[in-house]
């Protein structure tokens, strides 16, 4: 019932249409009973007395009833189809919105293939329940009740004899539900595994080829494919085991009707018309019972799929906008940045520990540290991709959690370590966060990121489609487009997370000079591997295992002879070696 309540809640404005469609289902099911009733009259009042007075009126009524029923049935199907599609459109949009606003950590945990299955196949099965299972349940119930009520008036003894099979059916159904429900959950899980294998195989195609693991991947896919197929067969077999018993119980109704009804007729306790009414309505009692297996199966599948959707709907947001958060107009962020006692723990591991530093607007801070020291997580707190467990990340003296997410993120340009480009033109990738910029502007930004030359060398220049479905770019080229995208926003705070790891020293030096000469004031937070990229920063911090171990300027850090000096000396000797 909780799943039905959940569905009802999320149907919103579409509820009246569903109610109207199900009402039509009741009416059309009830109309099915009318013709057998008229047939009884035809036998008892026309055929047996051989009096044709009522023949035409009765036949006419039968035709009208059938015509009205078909018309109403068409209306019902149209209502259910449009209603269920619109309902799913709303639910899909809501789910997309939830996924969009969920934290990166949540999305990493869920796996893309899993989320895709929930958004497509699971939602479609819920739609099937709204458009098909719902009216079939109502049909079955109303046909059964209408037929039962009518037959009780014709001959209550025979009717009660017929329903003696009901307890067996209910016992069987409850066993079926217990058996089939966990099986449906496993089917959805196997489908998720299959989708994940396919998705990872496409995304990691280069790795697969480079390591010649095609056969291994084929085996992995075939195994997942087989497990999915086997589980579906198991579900079908389980249903098939119950169905013949349900069918047999349905057939029992015919036997009871003929045996008991025949005896009643011989004893003169029942008319031929009444017997005709019973034989033409046995299906109305037996079909709902026989269809029970299919409907239970469908309903259990609906329960499993809605559980999976509810899990996404109800997942708590790790990063949420505070009530009363302030919106700062675009460009009003000055750029004072400070981290005060920032700590973070993930999966019971301390990732950042009491990180404290400040930098004034327009200044540059360089962050250096070993792999996994926590640099990326630290800078991503400024745009609230993750929040600290304790401490404060402040911009212009206000905690970042006190800004609305959109106004906070509008003021910050972030070039990430893992570059992601959209399947779109170079221009639209660069303008992604800054609206439409004229060609000249885009070109000058690309120049600052040292991207103009290689973009101009492409066949369609700035109109070239790049990204997942577009032209391949080298790692360094992607980094420069990503830098241009961050610069195009003319942000008050610019975060550059290891954006020169894939470019040569000459390009790095060019980008360094460009950043020095930006024509607007902006605080720069630069995570870098190479000391040369951050040596002129106003403040350099060195992170190790989530703690600041050294802090100062280039000269002061060299003077103290710690990790920074060691790295700088190592890089210098490598550079001399290369020359
Ligand atoms: N989503 C996550 N869940 C759990 N742990 C995470 C998650 N993301 C990162 N970590 C862990 O947090 C630590 C810091 O990660 P982070 O990416 O900030 O390191 P980094 O200093 O940027 O490393 P690198 O220089 O290699 O990019 C790492 O040990 C990493 O394993």
UniProtKB/TrEMBL annotation:
Keywords: ATP-binding, Cell membrane, Hydrolase, Membrane, Nucleotide-binding, Transmembrane, Transmembrane helix, Transport. It comes from the Bacteria. It is found in: Cell membrane. Residues 337-570 form the ABC transporter domain. Residues 19-301 form the ABC transmembrane type-1 domain. The chain crosses the membrane at residues 55-72, 125-148, 154-173, 248-266. Its EC number is 3.6.3.44. InterPro entries: AAA+_ATPase, ABC1_TM_dom, ABC1_TM_sf, ABC_transporter-like_ATP-bd, ABC_transporter-like_CS, P-loop_NTPase, Type_1_exporter. SMART domains: AAA. Gene3D superfamilies: ABC transporter type 1, transmembrane domain, P-loop containing nucleotide triphosphate hydrolases. The keyword RNA-binding does not apply. GO terms for molecular function: ABC-type oligopeptide transporter activity; ATP binding; ATP hydrolysis activity. It is a multi-pass membrane protein. One of its GO terms (cellular component) is plasma membrane. PANTHER family: ATP-BINDING CASSETTE SUB-FAMILY B MEMBER 10, MITOCHONDRIAL, ATP-DEPENDENT PERMEASE MDL1, MITOCHONDRIAL. This is Xenobiotic-transporting ATPase. It comes from Parasphaerochaeta coccoides (strain ATCC BAA-1237 / DSM 17374 / SPN1).
């Amino acid at each position: 019932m909780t799943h039905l309540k959940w569905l009802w809640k999320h149907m919103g404005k579409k509820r009246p249409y569903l109610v109207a469609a199900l009402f039509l289902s009741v009416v059309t099911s009830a109309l099915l009973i009318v013709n057998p009733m008229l047939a009884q009259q035809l036998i008892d009042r026309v055929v047996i007395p051989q009096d044709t007075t009522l023949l035409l009126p009765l036949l006419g009524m039968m035709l009208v009833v059938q015509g009205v029923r078909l018309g109403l049935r068409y209306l019902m199907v149209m209502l259910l189809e449009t209603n269920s599609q619109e309902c799913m459109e709303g639910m899909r949009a809501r789910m997309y919105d939830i996924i969009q606003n969920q934290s990166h950590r949540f999305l990493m945990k869920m796996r893309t293939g899993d989320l895709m299955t929930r958004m497509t196949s699971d939602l479609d099965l819920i739609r099937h329940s709204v458009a098909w299972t719902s009216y079939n349940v109502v049909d079955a119930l109303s046909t059964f009740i209408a037929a039962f009520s009518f037959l009780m008036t014709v001959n209550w003894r025979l009717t009660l004899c017929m329903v003696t099979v009901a307890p067996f059916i209910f016992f069987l159904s409850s066993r079926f539900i217990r058996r089939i429900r966990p099986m449906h959950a496993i089917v959805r899980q196997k489908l998720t595994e299959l989708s994940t294998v396919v998705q990872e195989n496409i995304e990691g195609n280069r790795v697969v080829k480079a390591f010649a693991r095609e056969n291994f991947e084929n085996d992995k896919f075939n195994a997942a494919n087989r497990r999915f197929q086997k589980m579906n067969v198991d579900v079908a077999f389980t249903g098939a085991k119950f169905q013949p018993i349900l069918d047999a119980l349905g057939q029992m109704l015919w036997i009871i009707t003929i045996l008991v009804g025949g005896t009643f007729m011989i004893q003169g306790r029942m008319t031929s018309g009444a017997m005709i009414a019973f034989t033409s309505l046995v299906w109305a009692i037996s079909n709902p019972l026989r269809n029970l297996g299919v409907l239970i199966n469908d309903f259990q599948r609906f329960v499993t799929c809605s559980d999976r959707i509810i899990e996404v709907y109800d997942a708590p947001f790790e990063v949420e906008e505070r009530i009363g958060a302030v919106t700062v107009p675009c460009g009003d962020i000055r750029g004072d940045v400070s981290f005060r006692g920032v700590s973070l723990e993930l999966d019971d591991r301390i990732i950042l520990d009491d990180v404290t530093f400040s930098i004034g607007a327009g200044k540059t801070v360089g962050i250096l540290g070993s792999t996994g020291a926590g640099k990326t997580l630290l800078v991503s707190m400024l745009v609230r991709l993750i929040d600290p467990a304790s401490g404060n990340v402040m911009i212009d003296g206000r905690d970042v959690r006190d800004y609305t997410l959109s106004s906070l993120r509008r003021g910050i340009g972030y070039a990430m370590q893992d570059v992601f480009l959209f399947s779109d033109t170079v221009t639209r990738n660069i303008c992604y966060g800054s609206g439409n910029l004229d060609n000249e502007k885009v070109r000058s930004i690309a120049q600052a990121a040292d991207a103009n030359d290689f973009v101009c060398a492409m066949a369609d220049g700035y109109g070239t489609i790049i990204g997942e479905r577009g032209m391949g770019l080298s790692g360094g080229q992607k980094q420069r487009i990503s830098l241009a995208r961050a610069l195009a926003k003319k942000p008050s705070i610019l975060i550059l997370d290891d954006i020169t790891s894939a470019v040569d020293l000459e390009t790095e030096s060019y980008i360094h000079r460009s950043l020095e000469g930006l024509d607007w004031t902006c605080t720069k937070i630069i995570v870098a591997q190479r000391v040369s990229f951050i040596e002129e920063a106003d403040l350099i911090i060195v992170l190790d295992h989530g703690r600041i171990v050294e802090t100062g300027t280039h000269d002061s850090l060299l003077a103290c002879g710690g990790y920074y000096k060691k790295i700088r000396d190592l890089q210098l000797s490598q550079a001399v070696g290369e020359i």
